[in-house]
Design goal:
single chain; 0% strand; mainly alpha; 17 helices
Length: 364
Amino acid sequence: MAPNNIITTTAMAPGAKKAPRMEWLDAMRGFTMILVVAYHVSLIGFDQSIKESSVLPLFVLFRMPLFFFISGFLAYKSNLTWSGNTLGTLVWKKVKIQIFPTLVFLYVFVVVKYPDFMTGINAVMASPTKGGYWFTWSLLHMFIVYYLFSFVEYKLKWRSWIPIAILWFAALCIYATVYMPAWFTYHNAPFYKYSSLIQTMQFFHFFLFGNIVRRYWGNFQKLFDTRGFFLTCLIVAFICCADFLKWHVCRMQVTNLPRTTAMYTLLLIIFMTFRYYKDYFTKENRIGRMLQYIGARTLDIYLLHFLFMPNLKCVGKFLDANPHNFVLDTTISLVFSLLVVGFCIVVSNIIRISPFLKKYLFGR
């Protein structure tokens, strides 16, 4: 979330009080970052087919939604006093922290991966995913919209849940139009690809959902602790995943409904699991320390890991030729992702020796 905020906490502004840190949330960020790298290892490094993989179709349902959910969760600051100066300061901080580092590493990526720089940069900028570097740009869109909403909300003294719910529902409706090609084609315009707005439209509702959960944390904790809620999420997730990945009962303009429901329920399942086992994810626990450390360096890892993808197409061919090996598929991708993450952390620590690079490439 800066992707520091994606990913750690939003920048503190005058008038804001820092809330107690949820260590399990830091650990969950680290876990999610590992999954993101594992997905890219399989897709890019192994050149694995999504249709043949037993892991990739599942990973893609919740890895990025969970990241944006965490970003929205951390973005809410109940005691922040909003003013024009606060709004401008926060937006400018986001621009500096998220755009400059992304552009630097995107250019490095093009130099490393493309034989001709201009051809590469044109191809990357024309793509909505920007060679993988779309995340921070789309997150900036989300923060700007959210900050403007929060500013208006504060000035108009809205104290109801209705305004944020309306914004979430509007974002969900916009997201739905992306998956209704028979009715909506506006998003095919080049502008949406060059600006990566198409990516923002696909994930902004998860950001807002995370924000809503944080705003009404007490109520949601009661819901999470309600007997049968976790089981219900498991059942709904299984049915929706089965339909989206295998049955294909829902067709035409509602094809995306089971997919979206699966994304929300899988997100909640992981969130509730980390909350339930929170004692295992403290700094007193070795696994907790490791995941929290990765969670604190998610921006670094995100910006660097595309440069260190393995080139092992033979692994992808082997896995594609031997499908339905969920444990093997998952293990191989996770092992290589941990190697990539470890290498990114080493390089990050070297870069951070320079105070200038530490500040302007990683935001701190």
